[in-house]
Task: structure prediction
Amino acid sequence: MPVQQAVDTIVAEARSRLVAERVAVEQADGRVLLESAVASLDVPPWDNSAMDGYAVQTRYAQHDAVLAISQRIPAGETPVPLSSGSAARIFTGAPTPQGADAVIMQENCELLGDGRIRILQPAQPGENIRRRGNDIPQDSLLLSAGHRLNPLDLGLLATTGISDIVVGRQPVVALLSTGDELASPGEPLLPGQIYNSNSVVIRALLKRLGLTVVDLGNVADRREATVEALMQAGEQADCIISTGGVSAGEEDHVRAAVQERGQLDIWKLALKPGKPFAYGRMKEALFFGLPGNPVSAVVGFILLVRPALLAMMGCSGIELPWQTGHAGFEVTTGDREEYLRIRLMPGEAREVIALRNQGSGVTSSLSRADGLAVIAPHTTVKPGDMLRFIAFNDIF
Result:
């Protein structure tokens, strides 16, 4: 199946799993708004002083004028109207009194010591006053539905007095690996074993999305164990991600287990690396079977799993943030869409260099790469050609 067709199929199913819930704003970092947020008041709610100084009527506050201090206005107190020809001592954020049309900073006034000030440098009308609604007008749109919230957005909502919002429920993800050859980092390696990096990487990527992860560890390469682990995962989670066991080998039991006890909708993609990708359902949970090779697993997660999870969370924009650059290499692709690990060279030319070793088991290449360049099937790329690429920094 072509990659985009698989993405469209999976995302459509994932969006149907969206569940709404109401949460407190301070608990909403990383969550997705399902209802647009609108300002219920002006911010600021009244004209206020932008600095410590004196609120005045500019027609009386000319150079060298002497004005009596008629009131003192700290932040949080309501002033009385300004007496004609007087000045009000005012502090940053305090409401400006009715009748005042400017605030003169305290450095531009001389305090005479008898309850009066002398104006050393006059102000223009409106100077140093923050007008009501200047930041956020009442009834204005703050954030649209489908927006994924960050800490700065939470501050925006809190500024307008919003205490709770409707967001998409975060899906719970069950994570498991298959392979008798896998050992956890920190354990001694037995003959024929390798360390399991896939679980570490995928778990971290899920945490970046703010998701709850149920880690079921490593499953033995036996049909019964695989079925039991997948059934358990389907009972505990909204989504299952496995790594390994989806190829056609005698010891690859994941695909067969899903076909036997669940439903398999997609198997094999026109994708390199990552062809042996599986998608379906176990019980009520969506199932994603990623290949065991580390690069293939990461590519599959970025292209297929990540957009599905964002859709389940309610995100409206799940498209990958593509950039463009000029190829600094030559390559010809076969009958699959290829994703090459690349480095973006410094400078205005935006030259993209493909890493030399593009093997799907070369874990080190992922850490050294800046991103992935996509090349269509049956395409020859020559130096200078324009390429699209995904920068890891944009999605991680």
